[in-house]
Design brief:
Number of helices: 7
Order of helices and strands: EHHHEHHHH
Strand order of the largest sheet: 1-2
Structural class: mainly alpha
Helix content: 55-70%
Distance between the termini: 16 Å
Radius of gyration: 17 Å
Length: 194
């Protein structure tokens, strides 16, 4: 799987306030923090339903591209909210690159078991997310002051979204291998850049 985001030269101050408004709305909608659970539970359940209807190979062949686009939209939205880009996802993935090499032969049971298997990765990602929240605040302040923020902070946030993208692809049963505990993914060229 490959995930990357084109780093903008400058970022809009006004869009920081839009993100805060979107995050406040999402917090209000899911006061218990339930909206991230839609990704965590939604993709495996949808995959299990589609696998039950068609079988694993047909799911990957016939629905894999569509599910990849859904994941691309979700990851694009996450990248936008994480201050990685000033562009909301529009389906064309112009500034967010997500490629998933589909593998395996999922069954209904394997789709649903991934909910449990993914708990350790999701927990570690949650712990990084606590740090990521502080990084986000520093990045937002930096953007408000100078319309930029340090590359090291941007790379940390990008690594978090990479991890989330791999976890979501795994939960959607598009890839057979368990997502690594790493901020890096992709080809050797992508791996060399932090």
């Amino acid at each position: 799987m490959v995930f990357d985001v084109e780093r903008p030269a400058t970022m809009s101050r006004a869009l920081v306030f839009l993100r805060v408004a979107i995050l406040a709305l999402l917090s209000w909608i899911g006061t218990s923090g339930s909206w991230p659970g839609l990704f965590y539970l939604g993709f495996p359940v949808v995959a299990a339903v589609l696998v039950a209807q068609k079988g694993g190979e047909r799911y990957l062949a016939e629905d894999g591209e569509r599910v990849t686009r859904w994941i691309g939209f979700a990851v694009g939205l996450i990248a936008y909210l994480a201050l990685l880009t000033d562009k909301l996802p529009d389906g064309a993935q112009r500034n967010v690159r997500l490629e998933i090499a589909r593998s395996g032969s999922p069954s209904v049971g394997s789709c649903l078991v991934r909910i449990l298997k993914a708990i350790p990765s999701a927990f570690v990602l949650f712990l990084y997310g606590v740090v990521g929240w502080f990084v986000w605040v520093i990045a937002a302040i930096s953007i408000l002051v100078s319309e930029r923020y340090p590359a090291s902070l941007w790379n940390f946030e990008r690594g978090m979204v990479r991890w989330e993208a791999r976890l979501i692809a795994y939960l959607a049963s598009l890839v057979d291998s368990y997502p690594p505990y790493s901020f890096q993914t992709g080809t050797a060229a992508a791996e060399s850049s932090p």
